[in-house]
Amino acid sequence: MALELHPLEQFKVEPLIPIHIGGLDLSYTNASLFMTIAVVLITALLVLGTKRGALVPGRWQSVAEMSYEFVADMVDTNAGHGAEPYFPFVFTLFMFVLFANFLGLIPYSFTVTSQIIVTFALAAAVFIGVTIIGFIKHGAHFLRLFVPEGVPFVLLLLLVPIEILSYFIRPFTLSIRLFANMLAGHTMLAIFGGFAASVGLLAILPVGLDVAILALEVLVAALQAYVFAILTCLYLRDALHLH
Amino acid sequence: MAGRVAMSDDRPSDALARLAERLDKAQASGSGAPVAGSGDSAGSQQAMGLGFRIGIEFVVAIIVATGLGWVFDHALGTRPFAMIVMFFLGVATGMLNVYRAITGQGAAVGFRRPSKDE
Hints:
The complex is a heterodimer. By secondary structure, chain A is mostly helical. Chain A contains six helices and four strands. In chain B, helix 2 (40-76) packs antiparallel against helix 3 (81-103).
């Protein structure tokens, strides 16, 4: 009995509409498709959900308002004063990651956030944006972020490199955390699914396990979106307030 | 966030009165049972988010720092010293990041839990 497991096949990016411009491969892939679906769903939820604008909200309006208030609250408590202008960015980021994660849980769909290039692009946008905001708000004074207060000069020689390293590691931890969680979860699901297909009646065990893992994955999908957004808020807070 | 509650207010008193009535009734029948999704859940949610966050912090710091050291080595021809130094710096950074994420009282860069008194 040959065990045919291809747990990593689900992460393959395949072009759906090949587009080649000037030696660049700009094909519309399955990843692009699911990003489009996520954006369309989010827009539909928010636009259609709030269209009626009832004082006592219905189900869809409740969902739209709850997600709005959840992120607004997060920005308010974590990014501090003066972070309101950046709420739309954090909200967009949160909703996109959340929907991409949840869409990936649907069987036969594609998990956009399991691609390191996608999560890294998001994290890099946050990192570069926050750095620019910091320099605009504080000028060269922003560099004080790397110099802890009340530390003897000798220790500074050691601490400043550590602080700088700590700062530049941010986009990596931010992107790898999301990517690794998604990759690991979906690989696990596929492996146990593959077992189930090959062991006949005993399949009840791996399928049962898959159900449990799927439940965990729902939690992880929501939590990782939350973590991504909250860290963005914390980085924004650094850039805005320097503490 | 200003304007969060701004909504259409056609005949609000009527709808509000009915809502208040229903809320009163629901609260009376529930007799103070904790409502799901309020109060304590925010704390546990934050704690869980923290737990999921720091798991990877330490490992990534070491890997990225060591990788940077490798790049420096190749660029400057100092093999293997930059990699060794950067490895230890990476360990220090990872520990610092985890410590800050947990205690929430960093002396400097990032990873602070929000304090209410600010």
